Amino acid sequence: MIDRTSKLPLVQMYWTVTALLYAAAIAMLLTYTPTEATMGPIQKIFYLHLPVAISTFLACAVCFGASIAYMINRRPAADDLAAASARVAVQLCTVVLLTGMIWGRSAWGLWWTWSPRLTFSLILWLLYVVYLMIRMSIESPQRRAAVCAVYSIIAFLDVPLVFLSVRLMPDIHPESIQLAPPMRYTLMAWMLPTFMLVGGLIAAQFKLNKLQRAAAVRAAEASSQTQTAAGPMRWSTPAVSGGNRS
Amino acid sequence: MNGTTYSILAYIVGIGLLWGYGLSLWLRLRRAK
Asked: pTM for the full model?
């Protein structure tokens, strides 16, 4: 039998280390990282924007993989993981869009422009928001999981479009940035805590989804037992469907 | 607003949204257990 209490210190240690790494990355940004000559201080948004953008792609990939796994074996855990990673992907993509808009406002004088990369990024955000809305709109857990799995497999097609668009089409968004060694080290210092944070968020959301699914199944069983005890002639409200909608 | 202010704003928004979401998950997990 798994001793769940023994996992708690590991989880606490994980989040403590993540927070400390973030603090170290911020300190590095303030004291060590040089200011870029052309763009000035606004360029420092890059050290948050790029790791979160990469994490968005990774979260979408986890959703894609979990959805394929669900279509193959129909296990509820795969659906829970897909839902969790989609939820986190929406959060991450929101941060990418907002930090990008703030950078664009300062660098280009525009909050928004319909360039290929920005447009495909907005589409990516909308696709996964719609995924979450679909989850909330379907009662049956099996049907919800299947519909969402198919949808997320198709939605993932936008990820390579976001990545490649700036390379294939004229775009105001820079394709790449030349980094001096201190800037490269700073970028690496921001990558690790960001990936740890995203991994922790997906794991926590996945755990919450599992708990909500189990609670919904218990509620459905209790409801059906109540209906059985009440007898066949009484009208009653339909049994609550199991599964999570998050 | 100058570049430094925009930069600080971006970090507050970005880190705030991510860690705020993490905090909300922690609170919901505590309630769910």
From this structure: 0.88
